[in-house]
């Protein structure tokens, strides 16, 4: 699927290794016990737009706090991985055309390990940035700019007690933006693979005219976010080469659990 269009939230968006649909609280949480195979259908936390001084239209404001978190993965027990706000997936961001995403990124990861290879070898695994996958927004400045780097503290800064760095992304969504389901994730060259298979991804819902169709407005609106995790010895292995995933099994989670149950009543959509 290309990045030129979104899709209806009543069909499934799959952008390997993540899929999404749309709305409220759940997912894999730090310290949460591993869910059973018949777990209820959880929903990620959600942020919606609200009026903000200085902005003509409502703004979705969210802090995305990235750090290593111990989470429970059904069938694998507790693992250590990078997360947004301590959960897999990250919070759902709900926005409309003409509104703005204003995201504060906190890098609570440890200093990057030394790197002596070239630019096209894995490096800076604890730096990241923001990509709003599939959205029709600016790729420059402080918007969806994959050339930015949200670096962690250096070892000297940690020793000196410096505050964890914070970075701001401001993404203006065009008024005529197609309604649909999209997703956000880091897209820093040299680090993206290890971060995404560790769970760094979340859903963006762009609402629009489709939501005013009576049958759609009356239907249940649920997020379906599928993450593919690579887990070995209680953690996501360090990305060292293009073949690093060989022999590492995939764990597929739906909204942070495995095989959740979605219950419908007769006639329900």
From TrEMBL:
Domain of life: Bacteria
Domain Plastocyanin-like, first and last residues per copy: 124-208
InterPro entries cross-referenced by the UniProt entry: Cu-oxidase-like_N (IPR011707), Cu-oxidase_fam (IPR045087), Cupredoxin (IPR008972), TAT_signal (IPR006311)
GO molecular function: copper ion binding; oxidoreductase activity
CDD domains per the UniProt record, alphabetical: CuRO_1_Tth-MCO_like
Signal peptide (UniProt feature, chain positions): 1-30
Protein name: FtsP/CotA-like multicopper oxidase with cupredoxin domain
Protein source organism: Streptomyces nymphaeiformis
């Amino acid at each position: 699927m290309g990045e030129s269009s979104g899709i209806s939230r009543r069909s499934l968006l799959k952008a390997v290794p993540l899929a999404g649909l749309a709305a409220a609280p759940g997912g894999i949480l730090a310290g949460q016990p591993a869910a059973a195979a018949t777990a209820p259908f959880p929903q990620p936390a959600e942020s919606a737009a609200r009026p903000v001084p200085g902005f003509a239209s409502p703004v979705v404001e969210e802090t995305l706090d990235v750090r290593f978190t111990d989470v429970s993965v059904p069938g694998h027990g507790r693992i250590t991985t990078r997360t947004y706000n301590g959960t897999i997936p990250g919070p759902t961001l709900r926005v409309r055309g003409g509104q703005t995403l204003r995201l504060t990124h906190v890098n609570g990861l440890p200093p990057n390990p030394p790197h002596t290879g070239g630019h096209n070898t894995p490096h800076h695994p604890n730096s990241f940035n923001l990509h709003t996958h599939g959205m029709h927004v600016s790729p420059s400045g402080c918007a969806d700019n994959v050339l930015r780097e949200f670096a962690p503290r250096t070892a000297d800064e940690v020793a000196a007690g410096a505050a964890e760095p914070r970075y701001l992304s401001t993404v203006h969504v065009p008024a005529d933006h197609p309604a649909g389901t999209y997703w956000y994730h880091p897209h820093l060259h040299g680090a993206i693979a290890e971060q995404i298979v560790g769970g760094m991804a979340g859903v963006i819902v762009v609402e629009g005219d489709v939501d005013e169709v009576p049958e759609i407005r009356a239907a249940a609106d649920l997020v379906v976010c599928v993450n593919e995790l690579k887990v070995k010895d209680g953690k996501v292995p360090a990305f060292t080469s293009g073949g690093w995933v060989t022999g590492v099994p995939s764990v597929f989670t739906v909204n942070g659990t495995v095989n959740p149950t979605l219950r419908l009543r007769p006639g329900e959509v």
